[in-house]
Each structure stands twice: as structure tokens, then as C-alpha cells.
Design goal:
Subcellular location (chains A, B): Cytoplasm
Catalytic activity (chains A, B): tRNA(Pro) + L-proline + ATP = L-prolyl-tRNA(Pro) + AMP + diphosphate
Helix content of chain A: 25-40%
Keywords (chains A, B): Aminoacyl-tRNA synthetase, ATP-binding, Cytoplasm, Ligase, Nucleotide-binding, Protein biosynthesis
Number of domains of chain A: 2
Subunit structure (chains A, B): Homodimer.
Oligomer: homodimer
CATH superfamily of the largest domain in chain A: Bira Bifunctional Protein, Domain 2
Family (chains A, B): Belongs to the class-II aminoacyl-tRNA synthetase family. ProS type 2 subfamily.
CATH class of the largest domain in chain A: Alpha Beta
Strand content of chain A: 25-35%
Chain lengths: 446, 446
């Protein structure tokens, strides 16, 4: 993309209404604009990152064998009356009446609707196991929306639901989701720690939240320092293999890691003192196994091998897709702006032309631009007629992890400069070498 | 995808509530399920086609230089008061109050919101030209929703908005959208004819609708038979070149083609009789130039080169993304089911195993499956233990354009059968030759 043809309205001033750094930086970097309280327009740069995150979620769900679909944003109230949640949900549910005074609501989650769908079509155990998910806009009418996309009202969530014949199968689905989520967050450059969670109003015995450590997190967290050494990495795993998935769950959840809601001071204090850690965390996902509660209420019953009719064992599993942009920025920024991890960066590198209009500099930038595209990378070329200082400040603010700086002086020696946003270190090299280095860096991310 | 692990709830019976063929076939093929009147869940097969169509729209918008973003579904009423449309819009607008009694609405379109965004950030002509678009769910509270996704209430639309300094520039944006839409529809296997449209309540002098000819279309259309001979094809075009885009507009709109709303009997009857055609059509898109009306009301004003403050010239341009599934099926089906064009098919070919459990047949199917994936194609392998007749009927119903049939008898002679859904013709060939033929067929579509 050439910046002269893009729409990137960066702000010089820090918006007064933003209390946390990710909100400030998303506004300043021209990623979002508030439409009304807790409701945002995603400007081109923000939308680009949102789509990258959504795509990673889709790819990892596919790897785990989960099946994508899409439920609508508006749901009939009657579905929620069947589960008993219509009245119970309270003022966070946005209730709507249509022109025929039919009662509807803007879905905050989809347990009722998906269970109704499965109840409609699935009659035999032979269709199982089955995990369906969607990535759809939800609405929760927070009384005080704040912190930008971190606690918005209209938000994008991936929510998935497993349907299994037995508790044992459903717990495998639970473990499979845990493995899949570990991969998902790592691809986004995040270390998200599964922590024992409170099952809350949705009920259920098994639930973990995934928390990203950040000073601005909404939850206080307590953990064994060893949990931060764990990495899933690129290990091969067979998602159908119950033992393999259970072993990963064991590895990642056997050490102490809890939020303030489930904190057990005695267990925490039993750890060696040097391994006890207290910090703040941002919740970016949650997995649940809750048994047959919804399938009984919504009639999701199948015939088992013996011909008996049994309710399905279910769980629901969510990733806060739009919230993740805030969480990533909270975990990865400095005083100049955002620092995108390579897996989610909106553009793979910025190209800064120090002397726009200089025939040689222009030609070198164009050649770099085309070479990046030829390798499947997306460059952002600042081709505006601006001072170098302003161009650098914009690139630092929007946080592309790599920048290639091109100027007449370097070109005389046959070199450009490749700069890491994270370390700030620059290295001079021929243009071809800069491209080669970027190809290596992004090898696992294209 | 292996069918034993997919969720494809095909129906044997024809649902009574569906009046038109696309609605019937989408229900029977397990693509959609009604959630409430005019609101649908997209089951996995339907969602897959929806995403394919959305991706084609995004790719063609990118080619034309238009910039993607995303506006929220809920909008503040005050924005619409500014344009005067809040009261004017009538009962098709779904109005919502939040917990603080703030008036909102579920967006039926986005002229107000996008103009407000541009008014906020764009102050100079230097940022122009600018075309922003999004693909987002909309809501129109139709009094009698029907025909499935063809006239739903919650529907997915691409709507784009151009902002230009002069009428001349805005008309180039208009022409550019026309060219881009021609490409878009052709990639989906559709012949969509631009027809002079009525500008309706949105106002404006220049507007064309794109209509797909189909017996079940909602509009009566009148056209010169020569328009159906026109094809955009894969010609190269420079979307920045005003003359090139204007020439395409001229080529595709100079012959008579109108809907009943703008029909001019005298002009039509002036055509040679053998070229006069009357038919029915489905509207799948519309382009508009409407001048400075919204920019004046919403304050989208910039400084021009002389320092004077002038309102921007705008247009809005829409493609009915979810409706397109219905339109494609109306235009491409037979009495056995859907016939997907190669550009939008949910899977590139079906693999039917005539004798599941036969070691040789199973191995041959697995090899074909892996070979298709290795070539970037997605197969749907019917690996269920069902009769061949049932497998064929399901494949015909869901409409994959190609089927590979594998059985012990053929394998003895080293062949499988490749069948065209459209022509019904089958050809025996070695498995490698079938793969090679599919690679050629899909060369332009992967």
C-alpha cells in the first residue's frame, strides 16, 4: 500500500478520553474511531489487524477439526425463555422489538441458538463428535463502557460449542480447545496463561480463562513463575488423540495459576517463595465444560448405541477477537507507539523514502515495494512529500515491526537501512539483502 | 473435508414455507436455517459460499484501489437526525434504546456514518480521491420477509463510498465502480447487466442497478439482446485511467437495458424487433453518484487548491453479498439441485467412494483427497457407509461442479470417473488425469 493512497488519519495529540495505553494508541494510530459509547468504527489500519487476528483464529480452529458457520446477531427472545436466561440476563442484554412487536435481542452469546440448531438436525450419536463455532459481532450493554475495544459494547467474539455423547468425549473437546487456544495466542505473539476460572452464571465444573500479563489488566493474578517458561511452540499434535491433548492440558495447568476470583492463598503460599508471582492480567479467552444443562433445556437429545435417548454433553469456548487488539498493544508497546508482533502486523514492513522526488530514491523504493509483494509480503510505502522525522514518527506510532529506510546517501554506497521496531537497531545492507532478511523473518507468518 | 466429520444436514423433504427455488435448495442442502422471520443462521456449507463471495468482493475492491474498513452494526440516532433521514426512513428502520435510553438503530446503510468519519479527519484535497467500503451486516425491517436470503431482514452487504473534490472525479469513481462490479459478478459466474435505475429516496442523477436474469426475479426488465453478448473477461484495465473506465461504461450501458421503474416504451420499441427482450431480473448491486447532499449536511468539507472550502462529491455503491447466494442459485440449478459456478463453489470437487471399507477404494479416495489438497483445492469426500444412490443425490443437491467416483470395478482397470454436474457427462480416466483436469479447470479460481 502506498501511504499517499491510504486512509491513515494519525493524531498528533493524545485523546483526553482514553485512560489506558492501548486505547490511546489505537486512536492516535488511526485504527478506530468511536461511533458511540463502547461502539467503534474500525478504520482501515485497525480493520486490517482485526482481520489478521480473525484469520489466525479460523486457521487454528480448522486445524483442530472445528467447523465454521455463522449465526445472526439478532435472536428471538423465545429461545432465551426456553433456557430461562431471558429474564435472568439483566440489563446487559440489549432487547429489541421489531415492527410487529416481536421481542428480540442482540446476542451476547449463542448457547441457546446453537443448541437449538443441533437439537433440530442431530438425532443419532453417529453425527458426533461435533464442534461448531462462529466469529460474530456480539453486544453487551455495559453500564460504563471504557478502555476502547477492551471493554466495548459491540465486540467481535469467536464462540465455539462442542456436542458430545459422553462426559469423557466432552472433556476431550475441552482439552482440544485448550491446545488449540495455546497455538492461537502464540501465533499472535502473546503468552496467554490458562488459569483456573470461576464458572460464574453459566455454570459448569471445568473452566479455564486465558490471561495475558499486562500492567493494565483488569484482574489480579497469582502464579508459579514456572508457568511463564512454558511454550507450545510448533510441536506436532494429533487433535483426535485424547492422551496427547490431555498431556498438554496437564503440562499447562498443573502449576499454580489463578485469578483473584479463584485464588487459594494457602496453595499459593505452599510454593517456594522465589516462584510466587503476583501481576495483573487481561482475559482473552475462556473454555468451559458444562455438561447437559443446555441440551436438556433445548432438547438436544440423541439415540446412543443402545437406542436410548440421552442429552448431549456440551461446552462453550470463546476468544475475544476485537479485545485481542487491545491486549496485544497493552503487552507490546513503548513510548513511541505500538510494536506489532510479526504474526498480526497490518503491514510486514514500512518503506520510508527520505527524499521523495529524487529519481534514484523513488526507483529504489519502488523496486523494494515490488520485491516485497513478489514474496507475498505487504509493504506500507510512505511516499508522501514529508520530512523524514514525521515519517519515522508515524511508522513508530503504527508499530510495523520492520522499516526499510531509503535515501540518496545510502544508495550511493548501494545500501538501505533495515530497522527493527522492537530493538531500535538498524543495519545497513544492499536492498536485496534486506528483502532476503524479511523473507526469513516472515517465513512462518505468511 | 471428510463428510463423516462435517455438519451437512441435507433434507429429504421440500420445506413447505419456501416459495422460490433458491430458498428451497438452500434449506434442503443444509446451507441455512431460519432463526426468525427473515433472519438466518448460515450452516457450514452456506457460510463457506458466503465467505467465498465476500472474498471475491474484497479482492476486486482492492484491485480497484478501494480501502476496506468496518463500521459497527449499531448507529446513534443523532447521526441520522443530522441528515434528516431518522424520521424519514420509516418502519423499515429497526430502532433500539440502550439501558441509558439512548436512541440507536441497526444500520440499514452507512452514508451518514462514513461521511461523519471523513468530515472528522479529511481537511484537505490532498487526501483525495478516497473510496472507503465495508462488508457488514445490515438490518431492514421488511414487513413481509420472504424468499430466504433474497429478501431477508438481517443481510450482508458491501457498501462503498467515494469522496472526491469535483463532480468529474466523482464520476470517474462511479465508472470505476461499474468496471469493478462487472469483474466481480463475472468471477462468480454471473452475467449481471447494468441497467439505468431510478434514483429513489437517496437522490442523485447517476445510478445503475446490476440485474441477473432469472425467471423468479422481482423486477421486469427490458433490454436489447446485444447486451447479453457483452463480457468483460480478463482484459487488463488501469483503474486510475479515466478514459479507460469511461469507455467500459459506454460499452456496457449505451444499449437499451432498463427495469420496469425506468422503462421507456418508445425507446425500446425503436429497437429492431428481433433484438427486443423482456425478462425478469434479480438486483444484485447498485451504483450511485449523488453529489454533495450528504457532505453538506454532515460537514464533509475540504480546502481546495485555491484555499476555498468546498463540500465533497460523493457516491455510494452496494453489492448484496448474502442475497447473491440466492441469485446465483436462481440462475444456476436444475431439478436435482444447485449447480455452483467454479468461482464460488464451497468445495472444488466431491469424491464418492462406491464401496466404503474396501481397502483399495478407500486408499484410492485418500490419495485423490491428498492430491487435491496438495494442489490447493478443497475436496469433499463422502466417506460415509451409505448407498451410492444416496451419495450421488447429496452431491447433486449441494451442487459441487465436479465429482470423482471411485469404485473397485474401475480401479481394476486403473480408472476413476470424473463427472460434470452441469452437463451430467462422465469420463473415465486414471486418478492422476482427473486431478490434472481439475487443476486446469480451477486455474483461474484458486
Amino acid at each position: 500500500m502506498r501511504l499517499s493512497r491510504y486512509f491513515l488519519p494519525v493524531l498528533k495529540e493524545t485523546p483526553a478520553e482514553a485512560q489506558i495505553v492501548s486505547h490511546r494508541l489505537m486512536l492516535r494510530a488511526g485504527m478506530i474511531k468511536q461511533a458511540s459509547a463502547g461502539i467503534y468504527s474500525w478504520l482501515p489500519l485497525g480493520f486490517k489487524v482485526l482481520r489478521k487476528i480473525e484469520n489466525i483464529v479460523h486457521e487454528e480452529q480448522a486445524r483442530a477439526g472445528h467447523i465454521p458457520m455463522l449465526m445472526p446477531t439478532l435472536q428471538p427472545a423465545d429461545l432465551w425463555r426456553k433456557s430461562g436466561r431471558y429474564d435472568a440476563y439483566g440489563p446487559e442484554m440489549l432487547r429489541v422489538s421489531d415492527r410487529h412487536d416481536r421481542e428480540m435481542l442482540y446476542g451476547p452469546t449463542n448457547e441457546e441458538m446453537i443448541t437449538d440448531i443441533v437439537a433440530n438436525y442431530v438425532t443419532s450419536y453417529k453425527t458426533l463428535p461435533l464442534t461448531l463455532y462462529h466469529v460474530q459481532w456480539k453486544f453487551r450493554d455495559e453500564v460504563r463502557p471504557r478502555f476502547g475495544v477492551m471493554r466495548g459494547r459491540e465486540f467481535l467474539m469467536k464462540d465455539g460449542y462442542n456436542f458430545d455423547l459422553t462426559k469423557e468425549d466432552a472433556l476431550h473437546a475441552y482439552n482440544r480447545h485448550l491446545v488449540s487456544y495455546l497455538r492461537t495466542y502464540e501465533r499472535m505473539g502473546l503468552r496467554a496463561i490458562p488459569m483456573r476460572a470461576d464458572s460464574g452464571p453459566i455454570g459448569g465444573d471445568y473452566t479455564h480463562e486465558f490471561l495475558v500479563l499486562a500492567d493494565t489488566g483488569e484482574s489480579e493474578v497469582f502464579y508459579d513463575s514456572e508457568v511463564t517458561d512454558l511454550t507450545f511452540g510448533d510441536r506436532e499434535i494429533d487433535f483426535d488423540d485424547k492422551a496427547q491433548c490431555a498431556a498438554v492440558l496437564e503440562e499447562f495447568t498443573s502449576r499454580y495459576a489463578r485469578t483473584d476470583e479463584t485464588h487459594d492463598a494457602a496453595a499459593f503460599n505452599a510454593l517456594p517463595e522465589e516462584r510466587r508471582r503476583t501481576a495483573r492480567g487481561i482475559e482473552v479467552g475462556q473454555i468451559f465444560y458444562f455438561g447437559t444443562e443446555y441440551s436438556e433445556k433445548m432438547g438436544a437429545v440423541v439415540q446412543n448405541e443402545d437406542g436410548a435417548r440421552v442429552p448431549l454433553h456440551m461446552g462453550s469456548h470463546g476468544i475475544g477477537v476485537s479485545r485481542l487488539l487491545g491486549a496485544i498493544i497493552e503487552a507490546s508497546h513503548d513510548d513511541k507507539g505500538i510494536i506489532w508482533p510479526e504474526g498480526v502486523t497490518p503491514f510486514h514492513a514500512g518503506i520510508v523514502n527520505l527524499k521523495q522526488g529524487d529519481a534514484e530514491a523513488d526507483a529504489a523504493c519502488e523496486a523494494l515495494y515490488k520485491a516485497m509483494e513478489a514474496h507475498g509480503m505487504e509493504p506500507l510505502y510512505d511516499d508522501r512529500n514529508e520530512r523524514a522525522g514525521g515519517k519515522f514518527a508515524s511508522m513508530d506510532l503504527i508499530g510495523l515491526p520492520w522499516r526499510i529506510t531509503v535515501g540518496p546517501r545510502g544508495l550511493k554506497n548501494g545500501v538501505v537501512e533495515l530497522t527493527s521496531r522492537r530493538s531500535g537497531e538498524s543495519e545497513e545492507m544492499p536492498p536485496e539483502a534486506a528483502i532476503e532478511k524479511l523473507v526469513q523473518i516472515y517465513a512462518g507468518h505468511l
